[in-house]
Amino acid sequence: MTSSIEIGLDTAGRPIAIDVQELLATRLLVQGNSGSGKSHLLRRMLEQSAGLVQQVVIDPEGDFVTLADAYSHVAINAGDYDEREIATMGARIREHRASVVLNLESLDIEAQMGCAAAFLNALFDAPREHWFPALVVVDEAQMFAPSASGEVSDTVRRASLGAMTNLMCRGRKRGLAGAIATQRLAKLAKNVAAEASNFLMGRTFLDIDMARAADLLGMERRQAEMIRDLERGCFLGLGPAISRRPVSIRIGATQTSTRSGTHSLLPLPDAEAGDMREMLFAAMESPPPPPPPTPSPVAAGELIERIARSDAQESADPASGDEGSPQPAPAPDSEAIVRAALEAMLADPDSAFQPDAMLYQDFSVRCRMARLPAPPIDLTAFRRRFALARVDIFDPADPQWSELLAAAAQLPDDMLAPFLLIARAAMDGQPCPDDEALGRAYGTHSPGRLRRLLDFMERQGAIVVRSNFGGQRSVGIPALGLHTAAD
Asked: What domain of life does the UniProt record list for this protein's source (predicted)?
């Protein structure tokens, strides 16, 4: 089966092909001003390669959802899901090799960046057995990997930029091949753009963008002027998957189009000036009274807190003069609610690999739904309690765990769960947990990170790893005087 697709024709009318197999290894960068034909180019590439490789499209404007009508793509409207659900879908996409279009058009720019970051990180963090080849197309990439800070918060910007950097710099070994398009190279973070080896440069007018495009194409600066004269739908291509020398390409036709179609001239409506004025100002001679002001929307969390507070006050103030008035409802047992929330979260297998902030948000919602006005513990305390719960320790104040927790005091909280997992195995005389169990406790699929974790704990004196001549391994806990069984 050939891995080449026809993208368009050169100036002599000869077909120009893109080697998809090579593209997966070398990535693609597309630049062109608005209206130069970037989206048309990406659509042509996606249509031609639809039967060759899994495709994932980050679509900020909803331009590519029509691919689902003609191909097997699944359109995901990001506005219908929260961050946790988006991350879960990203993991399942890698597992089932589904081609999807993540439609972000209903979100504002900050929400788009946060959603794209969660989605791309889930693709990147998939377990090794799901590292199938996938072409990840990101339109308007300068929004998700900006070269400078803008109006969005630094936290969201760093998360989005980190996800894009992982895609372009480290994604190849995980089967992810980035194909990103931007209006201006100057707006795109340099460490993201620098990882592409294939380039398709469309029309642009600013000197700085023309100079950078010419430099990437290996052209002299005086030749950069030709980039300004390119027609719409024409691009200069270069790279191991396209051509070893710069070649001018007119992108071919596509089978699908955007939902809005092309913006072409339409005849103006045929109406007399008086009729048009009557239509515009109809029913404005005596305007109706203005409606009452709409109250500002209340955030869901704040509303839940208000309901909880009002219920607590009503139950605390029994009706006066009534012998049969109901007694105040007992205050909820916060410790029992915390334990129930932790147990419910641990029942979800995906919780092991979620960020702490996302887990704490889930925990807060569960506490409020259990009629607690506010979470009884902050993020730092939750991180420790969740780590303990992963090894079935739900009551840290229980004296039977005091010696064990004292042995773990020298380690950071994020290393608490894997250490306690090993220590519990030593206390029970069991073999050391395997890498999969330790990775789940540490929240990683990476064997390298797991090895570095064990090395760090050994350097801190928390554990001692021993191997006998038969290759069997056991792990000792010096603070407890115990060791796991040899396996």
From this structure: Bacteria
